[in-house]
Automatic annotation (TrEMBL), chains A, B:
It comes from the Bacteria. InterPro entries: Calycin, Nitrobindin, THAP4-like_heme-bd. Gene3D superfamilies: 2.40.128.20. Residues 6-150 form the THAP4-like heme-binding domain. SUPFAM superfamilies: Lipocalins. PANTHER family: PEROXYNITRITE ISOMERASE THAP4, THAP4 PROTEIN. This is THAP4-like heme-binding domain-containing protein. It holds the Pfam family THAP4_heme-bd.
């Protein structure tokens, strides 16, 4: 089974967000990786707060390129786009996908984000997602961590 | 009625693509602008060739910011992200939205694109979309033009 096939589907669960000068918050997440048969997955994420109100959403494409390399492009309604590159390795009894931003660009009215790192740890029907960011000149810190299950 | 309300919905129709050193091609397009009540629209586009096979798809968010300005962020599975800025004006018996790229960034394995301009001309239930790009060092040329109808 390829990593593309292992990721495909809808993942749901909960997460914790934190960042310097931001109060810790919890959220529910729905993350969908969808294939149209081509060598990429369309990724769409939605999070909601404890009261069910929408918090964050983002869309993008995870590209499976030569030599086991992965590329991810993401757009966010907060006015942020990301270009990330990385790879996957077997570890911790599963597969770990690590991606580092090559470019983070923002619209004129968006908050400043300088760099992002994302990690997906896949063990069967369990997916852990982690995101670190260097935003608003506060340095690279973990921002999000969620534990999702298939379905 | 706001421009956001005027755009919201699903638009379908056909288009013509061209570019220097690329044979002219025709396509069918489905373009959806979707609201979740916040001051942006989620944009998702799919095009197919004459035989119904998928050609292109992209996702992004059109942001309605202060002073009538518009911002658009787009991600494409070809490894391209765009950040565009512009505005809307009444013209040609409708509304014309013009957007120019501030940033176009590409993954290491993607084709080079340096700049993009997009225009949406909205007249009631008719939407014309136009896209110009400066790609692969060939200069700024019109690449796409489609005429869509609501529904």
């Amino acid at each position: 089974m390829t990593i593309r096939e292992m990721l495909e589907g809808t993942w749901t669960g909960s997460g914790i967000g934190s960042y310097p000068e931001v109060a810790e918050f919890s959220y529910q997440e729905r993350l969908r990786f969808e294939s149209n048969g081509r060598p990429f997955l369309r990724m769409e994420q939605h999070t909601t707060g404890p009261d069910g109100s929408p918090l964050h959403t983002e869309v993008g494409y995870l590209r499976f390129v030569a030599n086991g390399r992965l590329e991810l492009v993401v757009a966010q309604p907060t006015g942020i786009v990301e270009v990330l590159e990385g790879g996957a390795e077997e570890a911790e009894g599963g597969v770990v996908i690590s991606l580092t931003s090559l470019v983070v660009a923002t619209t004129p009215s968006a908050k400043r984000v300088d760099a992002v790192q994302r990690r997906f740890t896949l063990r069967g029907d369990e997916l852990m997602t982690e995101l670190w960011m260097d935003a608003m000149e506060r340095g690279m810190h973990q921002h999000l961590e969620s534990r999702l299950r298939r379905g």
